[in-house]
Design a protein that fits this description.
The chain is of the alpha+beta class. It has 2 domains: 3-158, 2-Layer Sandwich (Ribosomal Protein S5, domain 2); 166-282, GHMP kinase, C-terminal domain (Alpha-Beta Plaits, 2-Layer Sandwich), CATH 3.30.70.890. The chain is 29% helix and 32% strand. Strands 1, 2, 3, 4, 5, 6, 8 and 9 form an 8-stranded mixed sheet that branches. A hairpin with a 5-residue loop joins strand 1 (3-21) and strand 2 (27-47). Helix 1 (68-80) runs parallel beside helix 2 and helix 1 packs across helix 3 (124-134). The two termini are 22 Å apart.
Length: 288
């Protein structure tokens, strides 16, 4: 095998609870993450020499060691003892700074792809150990379905199957930096005003919540406007921000008629203008 193609799915956080600050400076989390059918596409191949070469369809993303794909490849080579040249071609479909986990998913896809390309020199436990060093969400993307993630996100338990739903992802034309979101959450939690959350929503038996919403909404005031507007739409079952934003998620009612997402998209453009990125998605189907 000289090359391999692999998909890197997006995710949403159906629940994101911040339980406190850890001694290592990170936040203790409990989050339910679900992979989506929306995915980046990677092709990974052998390359002459010993360099790691990344090309990316998004010119705004770095292609050197700042990119998690390159760091994942470097970590894989170190752990496996390999020094082969590697070429990675990344076709981005998941927007940056969206709370959809694109960078983490790409890194996990590189680990899985390289392990298959080089005839599995590492066992899955070793891949998970590498993933933990790359980012809190990376271990999740080595799995194949929804999971409850705890600790920094690296401690995982498989979640029950989610009720079938269609999802509309709506990202306004600005990102939200994850580090800033958590820092601002901590600042507000200590302040006199505190953090005020909306009434809970549900997805089947699950409670939808995102502890980062109040902090992000305070600065990015368009986001709570979008959420409130979405919740007023007839065929929208629930609406919320995923991760640290800026993407808003509209869960479509299971009895919504065909064409309801098309109408919703048209109404969003009419209400908020044409600059939003939108994608109709659903839960990722298991590879098994």
């Amino acid at each position: 095998m000289t090359s391999i193609s692999i998909a890197a799915p997006a995710k949403i956080n159906i629940s994101l609870r911040i339980l406190g600050k850890r001694s290592d400076g990170f936040h203790e989390l409990e989050t339910l993450m679900a992979p989506l059918s929306l995915a980046d596409e990677l092709e990974i191949a052998h390359r002459g020499g010993s360099a790691i070469h990344l090309t990316c369809s998004d010119p705004d993303l770095p292609t050197d060691a700042e990119n998690l794909c390159v760091r994942a490849a470097e970590a894989f080579r170190l752990a496996s003892g390999l020094d082969h040249g590697i070429a990675i071609s990344l076709m981005k479909k998941i927007p940056h700074g969206a709370g959809l986990g694109g960078g983490s998913s790409d890194a996990a896809a590189v680990l899985r792809g390289l392990n298959e390309l080089f005839d599995e020199p590492l066992v899955i436990e070793e891949l998970y150990r590498i993933a933990e060093t790359l980012g809190s969400d990376v271990p999740f993307f080595l799995g194949d379905g929804p999971a409850w993630c705890r600790g920094r996100g690296e401690l995982m338990d498989l979640a029950p199957e989610l009720p079938e739903r269609r999802v509309l992802l709506i990202k306004p034309p600005f990102p939200v930096e994850t580090v800033w979101a958590y820092k601002h959450y901590a600042e507000l939690k200590k302040s006199a005003s505190g953090l005020i959350s909306d009434e809970p929503q549900r997805l089947g038996d699950l409670t939808i919540t995102n502890d980062l919403e109040p902090a992000v909404f305070e600065k990015f005031i368009l986001l709570p406007v979008i959420k409130s507007w979405l919740r007023d739409q007839f065929n929208v079952e629930s609406a919320f921000m995923t991760g640290s934003g800026s993407t808003m998620v509209a869960i479509i009612s299971p009895d919504a008629p065909e064409g309801s997402i098309v109408v919703l998209r048209e109404n969003i453009v009419s209400e908020f203008g044409p600059t939003f990125w939108m994608n109709e998605s659903g839960w990722k189907k298991s590879d098994g």
